[in-house]
Amino acid sequence: MASYNLADKYKIQFAQFNEFSYYNLDISSDISSWIKNLEKKIHEPCRFGTLFVLYKNKEVSFSLLKKIISTTSGNLNRHLFVLRKEGLIDKQKRLLNSKFITWISITQKGKEDLEKYIKNFQSIFEEI
User: What fold does the segment set 38-127 form as a domain?
Assistant: First the structure.
């Protein structure tokens, strides 16, 4: 007996129903493909905020970045992990007044990816 796949049923129904024509929407394929291909590594608000702050400043301490973005240490650490894994930021610990301070800076790749991301947004608004 063949197994019934609910997801396949809805794919077929969706293919038969064209929402764009039903609602008389004028959506260019460029916009639709851009939305599908959003840079998820940047699009998340905490990551975008982090990259934006770092883009405007040479480097920022972890504690100051946490305050600027209004997030928790655990949440910020998780997002910094993703950004660092993607090569968008650098993280260093340095001694300052007998205390280790974690400093975060943006890499050249991070600057380029953020600029590209912002240009993509601008192009969407130019089409509207």
Answer: Arc Repressor Mutant, subunit A (1.10.10)
Residues 50, 59 contacting (CB under 8 angstroms):
no
d(CA 32, CA 27): 7
Two structure tokens written together for 15: 């293919």
Secondary structure letter of residue 83 according to DSSP:
H
CB 123 within 8 A of CB 101: no
The encoded tokens of residue 128 equal 């509207």
List pLDDT tens digits, range 37-66: 555 666 678 898 999 999 999 899 999 999
> Tokens for 26?
């004028």
Contact 106, 83 (CB under 8 A): no
Locate the domains of the chain by residue range. 38-127
Whether this prediction's pTM lies above 0.85 is answered by no
**Any idea how long the chain is?**
128
